Amino acid sequence: MKIVTTFHPTSSVVASVKCCLTSDNDLEHLVVAKPNSVEVFTLTLDGLRKECELEIWGRVLALRTIPIQTGSKLLVLTDHPDPHAIVLEYHTNAAAPYLSTESSLSLHDRNAMHAEFCTDVIVSADSEVAIVSCYKGKLKVLSLEQGKIVESFDVAIPELNLLAISFLDHHEYQLVVAHIDAQRRIQLLSRELEFSAREISAEPSEFLPSTTLLQSAFPFPDSPLHLISVPAFEYKIDDHDVKADGGVLVIGGRQIQFFELAHRQQQRAKKDKRSRLDKRKTGDNEEQKMKAKEKEKERNTRKVKPRASVKWPWSEVAAVCNVDFNYRRILIGDKFGRLSLLTIDDKLSLIITPIGEISPPMTLTYLSSQIVYIGSHYGDSQLVRILPAPASSVDVDTLPIPSDIITSSPASLTQSEKGKEVMTHDGKDRAKGIVLKLKGSHVEVLETYRNIAPIVDAILADLDDSGQPQIVTCSGENSTGSLNVIQTGADFLELANLKGLSEVIKIHPIRSRFESSIHTHLLFTTYHESYIFRLDDRSSLHRLEESSTGFITSAPTLALSNITRRTLVNGKSSYVDSSWVVQVTAKSIALLEFDDALGVFHKVGSGWSPDRLEYPLKGNDIVSADISPSQIVVGLAGGYLLVLTTNDEGQIQVLRTHSFRDEQRQAKEICAISCQPLDATKFFTVHIAVSFFTGNTVAVLSLEKPELQVLCESTALPSLPYSLMLHNFGSGRKAKDPDFRPVVLVGLTHGSIVTFNFKDNGLHDKKVLPLGNIPVSLSACEVDGRRAVFASGSRSTVLYWDRQRIRHSSVLLKDLAAAARLNSSAFSSALILATESSIVIGRVRGVDKMQIRQIPLGYDNPRRITYHSGLGEFGVASRQITPSRVGDAESYRSTFNLLHGQSFQRLCQFVCEPEEEITSVCALEHLDSSNPVFEARKPTFCIGTVYHRHGEREPSAGRLIVFQESTPDDSSAVGSKLSTLAEIETSGCVWAIDVVKDMIVAAMNSSVVLYTLATNPVIKPPVISLHKLHEWNHNYTVVSGKEIKSVARDYGPLWPVAVEALPDKGVIGGNADGNLFSFALERTDQRTILSQNGSYHLGEMVTKIVPGSIAAQETQDVDVFKPEHLFFTSSGRICQTLHVNDERISLGLTALQHNMSKKLVGAGDIRHSKWRTPANRYGRSDADAAIGFLDGDFLEQFLNQADAEALLQGENEAERVPISPAKMRDLLEKLQSLH
Fold first, then answer.
1. How many CB atoms lie within 10 A of CB 1112?
2. Which residue ranges does the record assign to the RSE1/DDB1/CPSF1 second beta-propeller domain (predicted)?
């Protein structure tokens, strides 16, 4: 059984609206629809504040508002195979705002054909009717009362191929429709919805004269159109006010056209003409009938001239939105993110004003005060402000405008004395519209919302040799191509860097007084000595000499800390603030005091040394130490532990002594000590943690009795315990407090961390987390206001308490020798870190978050990527697009780029031939090239291409090219690092390439071909070429020797778009219908078969499947959940599949999901079991339930359920889950920690 969990949620945006969701009209909201969720934001003076989010079990296509008196409701339309109309209501009367289903309606019709171009929903101005288009030849009409669906019915519509549909503003249930007719012409007409008769008018309405849109203005019939209904307005003709009844803007071709609605007299005249024509058609005179039909045909093909138009200078329109309520100003964005403003002026002219470049929009929403929300599928979503004056690039055109577009300057639009716009003498014909030419960008980006969609390709690569791979995705489209480097963990913000201080193994910050929160000095320890520095300001440290400090600098410092001053009041200890500091070295303990007036430290008393002790302790070196606010705990050689304290005069005294011996009475040598109080309000500790070299164990001791008492001791750890910490991650003060979280953490010498929960005087829940191969040091810190521990070694991580368990979040730092918390006047709430050659000060932010580093490539859209770990370089195939105007051919070129693995700087580039595109790439680092020729000419990368030739239904030509590392004198080099080693022409598109032993395997059209690199010994120097070994044509293959044999195959139609091998000789994949599937090899008596053992509806198209995981995993969790694959979708979602190793747990989770699916219902009353049932474009089969996969995100909702135990019990004995609530919670928390 496999579990599917979400690692990165869907980030693409499909729709957005601005509305008031409550009765308070001053409180405005932005609602954003993603493919699988709806999010609500409140508009505030500080920006957008997220209120709530609702998951939608279906693919969201459209989002509309239903305005009512008590606040708007939301109408969501989901896509096939189960189209639904869902009305959502916003609630604020709970502890937190939320969305709930008000009503819903299934729109599924198994016998109808899907709408090819227009799947949309529109709402009438009175909020009483909504119309849905999702099937050919019919519309679904929804009757609404107070935003609730109360009735629905179907109406037939003669227009089969709708392109767009809209209500005519302020005209009751009049529809404007654009469609493609049988001759592939775009027709624009209006029809009336006769609600009482439950039908659409058989004849076009006379409100809008029917017309055929010119092919010269709209060259591509299947391109999206936008119809905007403009209400009635007044304009001037020769200084006379003329009232227009409104009209329709048609946006989406080479022109923007405005068609005016017919006046009442024109409507009556046309209606009379139609009546007379109908009479002639139904009369007895055959000649008159023929003439009437010819006349009707002529009228249907008649082209009505638009009342106003303007040439559209850029590419296909992607999104539009109105700026004001009278629809006289409209923002338009094209698919490359070029934003402009369309204005209908008082002369009834269309004016286009370029504004600037944004992300390619899927949706535009004007909020207020020139602020616009841009929701994008191809780039980051943005919140931008439109500026009246250019903010940047003032010497460059705001947007490039083709030379065949006649432009005007803003100065050509001047103000007359009456304040009305008139044209100066250099103006053009206003009826043909005006395109203004401006300088500079008028866009200011206020906020960016990261989006990694669409993910076209992805790989896992260990870029920094840390042992923890990172995801690199090929994302974006059009003008926002990018590579995204993704890693989970916390972000580290570097604030300062001090070079030249090397070999530091410990850092000790010092305060001027115990109760002060500001660190004023730093003591650095190396293996041989110590250094003391004063923190002067943000840019400097001042080193102090030993003679002026009193500190022991000639030896390493084992421990150093500020302490309180302990006094006796009426025989009881009292702790007061002091300026005392304790320093522990191998030979002695020193007590120092800070002089505020002079700003120096001086010694107090005579200190303490083991030489004062009696035999056998006398003279033993101090090997480890730790200091609490009032106690000094040291470990002596020979396995002795001493607890010391200071008196009021500054004398250091021994309070207790303990000797550690093993079963053979041999000394247990102490390695590390931790004695920080678990109760942060106390000045002393009652528990001490001690680790031992002997036996590699950890023990916890109690100070509550006169004699030190060992409470518990661990079993042997995997290696020597290098560092130790007893730490309370919660705010509780004692065991009975709900937030009391004591944990023992051990850093091992071989690079792992071991954690134990310390409860009931015992060590429980052992967990091991690998961090590399060098010793791990531990230091307490605070991250984002929560208590944490920073662990550093080969890699670094932050440990914290969350969801009832210790969790860890990786930090992008490696090979640290020491770390400590720092809170100085210049660097508050920071960490100070020691590397091999420098000191770094910084701040950790955002634990358990996904860190995304974006490498923008602009118009270079990455399509395929591979990584050569030996070279530390990426091979990226890109498709560079040159924007063009609608109707003009877009030019592109395909390139293969070699990028540096750290900086992503382009090292060299290979450019394909015209009409050739790279379709696959592969790094050849695992190619077995034992031929001596390859020693000097090492193959590094291989690419496969295809030639796009006009009229071909299937590609007939391509190339396979192998590159090598170039030498400085290589004449065939295409850059500083790459040259062509061998190439061969292919008979089709090379879809995929891989390496098996010494062979290159290429998937080509429907064939699989084996190639090898061969040399011709006759030619000197030897020439290397690609030689075909074998070609095979079928579905599933394996390589055996030098030929391909079919082991097993499946004949069912899958339409796969991504496949990958499973560890157990199986196959996992995703198909074009948004389903996951898996197959396993099974042996029968006669043959081996490929049996389908998994099928699951994901709801998004998987574009890539990669083996592995990037989440650092605790070693014991592998026994239950084993990460297998990451898969990526076109909407920016990244998911992890995990194999459940325990059959009993697998059955328990399956039963739990079954019980939960009966209790928890999704938006629109959709059942989880139905949502995950595999689907195709025709719908779902009741007989084909999801098998082989469990929904991890759904199962994790168990952790938030109040009736969790009831979900385990089920409704009868057969449904009871045989796992205890505590065990189930622990399992799901482990699952949650893995993504």
1. 19
2. 496-843
Strand partners, 712: 700
The dihedrals phi and psi of 657, each to the nearest 5 degrees, come to -135, 145
Q: How far apart are alpha carbons 588 and 593 in whole angstroms?
A: 17
Contacts of 1230 (CB under 8 A, 6+ apart): 805, 1117, 1120, 1121
- Do β-strands 2-8 and 1189-1191 pair in parallel, antiparallel, or remain unpaired? parallel
For residues 444 and 384, the answer to whether their CB atoms sit within 8 Å is: yes
Pairing relation of β-strands 434-436 and 350-357?
Answer: parallel
Cβ atoms < 10 Å from Cβ of 402: 13
- Report the Cα 176 to chain-centroid distance in Å: 39
Positions of E strands within 442-576: 443-449, 457-461, 470-475, 481-499, 506-511, 519-525, 530-537, 540-544, 559-562, 565-569, 572-576
Q: How confident is the model at residue 1197 (pLDDT cuts 50, 70, 90)?
A: very high
Phi, psi of 1041 (to 5 degrees): 65, -130
Give the model's pLDDT for residue 237.
72
Question: How remote is the C-alpha of 626 from its chain's centroid?
Answer: 43
Pick from 900, 962, 973: nearest CA to 933: 962
The mean of the pLDDT values for the chain is 88
Q: In the sheet where 540-544 sits, what is the strand order? A: 506-511, 519-525, 530-537, 540-544
Q: Which helix (H) or strand (E) holds 84?
A: strand 84-91
pLDDT in tens, 319-334: 999 998 888 899 999 9
Whole-angstrom Cα distance, residue 879 to residue 994? 22
Task: Pick left, alpha or beta for residue 655 (phi over 0 → left; psi -120 to 50 → alpha; otherwise beta).
Answer: alpha
Which of 1123, 1049, 1120 lies closest to 1089 in space, CA to CA? Answer: 1049
pLDDT at 912: 95
How far, rounded to the nearest angstrom, does the alpha carbon of residue 967 sit from its chain's CA centroid? 40
**Once rounded to an integer, what is the mean pLDDT over residues 256-275?**
77
Confidence of residue 416 (pLDDT cuts 50, 70, 90): very low
